[in-house]
Amino acid sequence: MCMDRNIIRSLAIALLLSLVSFHSFAAEVTGGLTEEEADYANLVTSITKVKAPYMKDGYIVFTAEKDARFVGIAFDFENFKTIHPYQKHNSYNESGEVKDSLFFYALKLTKDMQKIKYRIVIDGLWTLDPTNESKGFDRSTGLLLSIYDATREIPPATEQLKDGIVRFVYQGESGKQIRLGGSFTNWDSWIYEMKEVQPGLYQFELSLPPGTYQYAYFTGMNMLVDITNPQRCYTVDGKTASQITIR
């Protein structure tokens, strides 16, 4: 059985949460985690019952009843080669005793995930998702599959394109001069000026070799972080900037 590389992290977070008797203590537990891990832990605490798959905080949450010994899920975009195990999640009463439990799996959404086809396995038997009424026949596999429609509006964001090209994105007031500077310009912000491609939407594409770079946007003398990129860092002079890793 194959497992994705986030399972160990997810299981560790789930273990921490399972040791918490009251959800009001979740902030204390998540305090030592990274921002992404803390967001994931908070997502887990919000799962309270078995229901149809749903989107929340950048994830699709799949749930299953507690009666099985093992529940897993496999997706079409992985050619069903990887089985991702569901995790056990407990809910507690005011005395800190387990009052109920369920299985869940949280799939991190990416931009290319729009319509997701999947199967689940319960105690060794492949089946459709009993919580999801949406299903369809897939000609490429010859299987009847569960389907989740994740079609959504995806706002523009800074991202790495092909061949090391990065598209930097800034959103703000229309008609401004927005400049790009960073460690790749020795923090000279007068080399690259972004283009306003739509009212209030500025973009600039730059080819960068593999590595980790600090950057920011500039308007006048003001330095601004990239709000479309959650990765933050501190410059050598203590200012907050954005960060991106090119692979």
In terms of topology, how is this protein built?
Layout: H1 7-18, H2 26-30, H3 35-45, E1 54-56, E2 59-64, E3 71-75, E4 84-85, E5 87-92, E6 98-108, E7 115-122, E8 125-127, E9 135-138, E10 143-149, E11 159-160, E12 165-171, E13 179-182, E14 192-193, E15 195-198, E16 201-207, E17 211-219, E18 222-224, E19 232-234, E20 240-246
Antiparallel strand pairs: 1-2, 2-6, 3-4, 3-7, 5-6, 7-8, 7-10, 9-10, 11-12, 12-16, 13-14, 13-17, 15-16, 17-18, 17-20, 19-20
Helix pairs in contact: 1-3
Topology, number of strands: 20
- Count of separate DSSP helical elements: 3
- Overall morphology: elongated
Radius of gyration computed on alpha carbons: 22 Å
Query: What order do the helices and strands follow?
Result: HHHEEEEEEEEEEEEEEEEEEEE
Largest sheet: 6 strands, antiparallel
The termini sit apart by 28 Å
Q: Whole-number average pLDDT?
A: 87
Provide the β-strand percentage band. Answer: 35-45%
Given as residue ranges, the uncertain stretches (5+ residues, pLDDT < 50) are 1-5, 18-30
Please bin the fraction of helical residues.
10-25%
Q: Which structural class best describes the helix and strand composition? A: mainly beta
Describe the structure.
It is a single chain. The strands form four sheets. Strands 3, 4, 7, 8, 9 and 10 form a six-stranded antiparallel β-sheet that branches. Strands 13, 14, 17, 18, 19 and 20 form a six-stranded antiparallel β-sheet that branches. A four-stranded antiparallel β-sheet has the order 1-2-6-5, covered by helices on one side. The longest helix is centred in the N-terminal third of the chain and has 12 residues. The chain is mostly beta strands. Helices cover 11% and strands 42% of the residues. The protein is built from three helices and 20 strands. Strand 15 and strand 16 form a beta hairpin.
